[in-house]
TrEMBL record:
<dbReference type="GO" id="GO:0003700">
    <property type="term" value="F:DNA-binding transcription factor activity"/>
</dbReference>
<dbReference type="InterPro" id="IPR010213">
    <property type="entry name" value="TF_NusA"/>
</dbReference>
<dbReference type="InterPro" id="IPR025249">
    <property type="entry name" value="TF_NusA_KH_1st"/>
</dbReference>
<feature type="domain" description="S1 motif">
    <location>
        <begin position="83"/>
        <end position="147"/>
    </location>
</feature>
<dbReference type="InterPro" id="IPR003029">
    <property type="entry name" value="S1_domain"/>
</dbReference>
<dbReference type="InterPro" id="IPR009019">
    <property type="entry name" value="KH_sf_prok-type"/>
</dbReference>
<keyword id="KW-0805">Transcription regulation</keyword>
<dbReference type="GO" id="GO:0031564">
    <property type="term" value="P:transcription antitermination"/>
</dbReference>
<keyword id="KW-0806">Transcription termination</keyword>
<dbReference type="GO" id="GO:0006353">
    <property type="term" value="P:DNA-templated transcription termination"/>
</dbReference>
<dbReference type="InterPro" id="IPR030842">
    <property type="entry name" value="TF_NusA_bacterial"/>
</dbReference>
<dbReference type="InterPro" id="IPR013735">
    <property type="entry name" value="TF_NusA_N"/>
</dbReference>
<dbReference type="InterPro" id="IPR058582">
    <property type="entry name" value="KH_NusA_2nd"/>
</dbReference>
<keyword id="KW-0963">Cytoplasm</keyword>
<dbReference type="GO" id="GO:0005829">
    <property type="term" value="C:cytosol"/>
</dbReference>
<keyword id="KW-0889">Transcription antitermination</keyword>
<dbReference type="Pfam" id="PF00575">
    <property type="entry name" value="S1"/>
</dbReference>
Length: 288
């Protein structure tokens, strides 16, 4: 059986006026002869001497303190994990959020952080990205995401050892979450093909990532320091005949065959918009 020790802080005074909070100097020096007036000393008290009301109050206060300590521990644990992937189970679906059971506590997957075409089923096991953790009176508030670009990056780190080890670097990610994503990769070793490593044998690695995204297309682009080559790579699988660069105006004209035009532009021009963002960032980073 465990032992409970109850201590109360008392102030050392010359004359005791409140025996519940004060102790005389003479009594205090029986505990510690170096104690002086004004010091605080811890005195053990016997809980069996408490009244029923006092005992009930003490029990309530202790339970509240334990609950608050548990909240603080949970907050510290999940705060350290911001930016990581976590697995959980879909527990409850509401109009504007999904409640995810994370084991020790629950996380919130807001509608804006949910994949567009995914059907979240109760009891389903999913991976999410810990976007933000805040301290709240009822416990830590954990906001999750499946639409953040870093969620996709973390999936690559989990499924592609070369990415996790830093051999293959992810230079940039652009996502239209639930529809399509472009991932720019570069290999730090000549013998390692960055695109091949991310795809895996017979597409095993990319398929594992796509299963988490349910319908979102992911294009892996090989990085190149040559602007024209990089643009060609970014527009694949469309076959680009020629890229004409206008360095002065920071423009590029891309020439493709008629049957490749729709493939290069993409649905509603999404390819051109996304590639433009990637290339503009690429130029701003001084990579071109």
């Amino acid at each position: 059986k465990g032992k409970v020790q109850i201590l109360v802080d008392k102030e050392v005074v010359e004359k005791v006026t409140n025996s519940g909070t004060e102790i005389s100097l003479e009594e205090a020096r029986e505990i510690n002869d170096k104690i002086k007036l004004g010091d605080q000393v811890k005195i053990e008290v016997n809980p069996f001497h408490f009244s029923r009301i006092a005992a009930s109050t003490g029990k309530y206060v202790m339970m509240q303190q334990i609950v608050e300590m548990e909240k603080d521990l949970l907050y510290e644990e999940f705060k350290k994990r911001e930016g990581e992937i976590i697995s959980g189970t879909v527990r409850y679906k509401a109009d504007h959020f999904i409640l995810i059971d994370l084991g020790k506590t629950e996380g919130i997957l807001p509608v804006r952080e949910q994949l567009l075409n995914r059907e979240y089923r109760q009891g389903e096991r999913i991976r999410t990205y810990i976007l933000r953790v805040t301290r709240e009176p009822k416990g830590p508030r954990i906001i999750l995401s499946q639409t953040h670009p870093i969620f996709l990056k973390r999936l690559f780190e989990l499924e592609v050892p070369e990415v996790e080890e830093g051999i293959v670097k992810i230079i940039q990610i652009k996502r239209d979450a639930g529809r399509r994503a472009k991932v720019v990769v570069e290999s730090g070793q000549k013998k390692v093909d960055a695109v091949g490593a991310c795809v895996g044998l017979r597409g095993s690695r990319i398929k594992a990532i796509l299963r988490e995204l349910e319908g979102e297309r992911v294009d892996i682009i090989r990085y190149s320091e040559e602007t024209s080559v990089f643009i060609k790579n970014s527009l694949k699988p469309a076959e680009v005949k020629q890229v004409k660069l206008d360095e002065a105006n920071k423009e590029a004209k891309v020439i493709v065959a008629d049957d490749q035009l729709s493939l290069a532009i993409g649905s509603r021009g999404e390819n051109v918009k996304r590639e433009r963002k990637i290339i503009l960032l690429w130029a701003a980073m001084g990579l071109g």
